[in-house]
From TrEMBL:
Its EC number is 3.1.1.-. This is Erythromycin esterase family protein. InterPro entries: Emycin_Estase, Hydrolase/PRTase-associated, UCP036794_erythomycin. SUPFAM superfamilies: EreA/ChaN-like (SSF159501). It comes from Sphaerisporangium aureirubrum. It holds the Pfam family Erythro_esteras. PANTHER family: ESTERASE, PUTATIVE (AFU_ORTHOLOGUE AFUA_1G05850)-RELATED. CDD domains: Ere-like (cd14728).
């Protein structure tokens, strides 16, 4: 079996991975099995350089705050701000501390500098402003949308009226609301009215699209639509935070996936004439199969952003899952998928899932990692990935 597995593998390179994919791909999802390990974003950087230089890709989006990413995109496109400031304000979830993310923005800026605007690479986040401690308040997104529309459309709501309904930001960001729904204001009368207003503002944005784009620009309109999606998504998420039903946590996880999928869809529509996009996130956010985890002592399952977007794109979506072998004393047992792949001679390998599945005469056991932040690959899902990237040791 080991020899057959070797036949299914190639040393990792961007070309080796894309050789497994259809040329019709519009979105390539590259997953990582855990956060905070530089080996995976470094591998992502190498892949994206290949995609940009040889495959016509013009954008990358990562599992980070979609609004914060506007700061990073302004830097890589126009040199706005300093790199230190952008690393501080342009990422969420602590990803600004990653040296690989810093290297990515530096390379994108250098790539873009001599090129015309339509040839430049774009950087996006496709997560909502949803930190681990809880969601951000809706004020920045809602007021940005209001201000954009107010310059061109008569609105029945003033900024003062919005500010009164929003109240102090601390009411929205109380970390106690994460586990105690009674501490959330997401279903207060003010929050319910704000949800209606956010919906109405988005309808106005759509209804006046031709006028607004002519008066501003397509890019300005796209950013306004980003603020509209984010305001609506945050208000809906806060309403979920205030839910006292037993399904609360699972519903919030699914809502986050829906927000991610909406953002991916909007990115693809914006980039449709320029080229495909690379998405980088945890495997659980990009896989086609139902995702599973334990949270607050209970099993949770949901359809990920990748599963949702793949139903829209069909064979124009591809998913490459990443996994690894040894991590210090955590060495995979030989009967697991990761244990079998550890016999490969390559430090980093790309595997054809179809050929790999054909070599497995019996289903490998699923690895039980020592680190709860690592999600091992489910052997049952091999056939529904387009490529597997294996890193021998991290």
């Amino acid at each position: 079996m080991t020899e057959s597995i070797r036949d299914a593998a190639r040393p990792f390179s961007g070309g080796a991975l894309t050789a497994l994919l259809s040329p019709a791909i519009r979105l390539l999802g590259l997953g990582e099995p855990t956060h905070g390990v530089e080996a995976f974003p470094e591998l992502r950087n190498e892949l994206f350089r290949h995609l940009a230089e040889h495959e016509g890709y013009r954008s990358i989006t990562i599992e980070s705050d979609c609004l914060a990413a506007l700061v990073a995109d302004a830097y890589v496109n126009d040199g706005t701000g300093t790199l230190d400031d952008v690393m501080s304000r342009g990422f969420s979830h602590g990803f600004g501390a990653s040296s690989a993310n810093r290297e990515l923005l530096s390379w994108m800026r250098a790539y873009n500098e001599p090129r015309a605007p339509h040839e430049r690479l774009h950087f996006y986040g496709f997560d909502g402003p949803l930190e681990t401690a809880g969601p951000a308040g809706p004020r920045p997104a809602l007021t940005a949308l209001h201000d954009y529309l107010a310059g061109h459309v008569d609105l029945p709501w003033s900024r003062e009226a919005l500010d009164e309904l929003l109240g102090p930001d601390e009411r929205w960001t109380d970390p106690a609301a994460l586990m105690d729904p009674t501490q959330s204001i997401g279903r207060s009368p003010e929050a319910k009215e704000l949800r209606l207003i956010a919906g109405d503002l988005r309808v106005l944005l759509t209804a006046h699209t031709p006028h607004l784009i002519a008066a501003t620009s397509a890019d300005d309109w796209w950013r306004a639509d980003l603020h509209a999606r984010t305001a609506a998504g945050l208000l809906r998420y806060h309403a979920g935070m205030a839910d006292t039903s037993p399904t609360r946590i699972g519903d919030l996880i699914s809502l986050r996936a829906a927000i991610m999928a909406d953002n991916l869809d909007a990115i693809l529509r914006r980039e449709a004439r320029r080229g495909p996009a690379l998405a980088f996130a945890h495997n659980a956010h990009l896989q086609r199969d139902m995702s599973h985890m334990r949270f607050a002592g209970q099993p949770r399952q949901w359809w990920s952003a990748g599963a949702i977007i793949s139903t829209h794109l069909g064979d124009q979506y591809a998913f490459a899952a990443t996994t690894f072998g040894a991590r210090g004393s955590d060495i995979p047992p030989p009967d697991t998928l990761e244990g079998l792949l550890s016999a490969l001679p390559h430090p980093r390998a790309v595997l054809d899932p179809v050929r790999l599945a054909d070599t497995l005469h019996q289903k490998p056991a699923r690895r039980v990692p020592a680190d709860h932040t690592y999600f091992s690959l489910d052997p049952d899902t091999i056939g529904r990935t387009d490529a597997i990237v294996f890193v021998q040791e991290i």
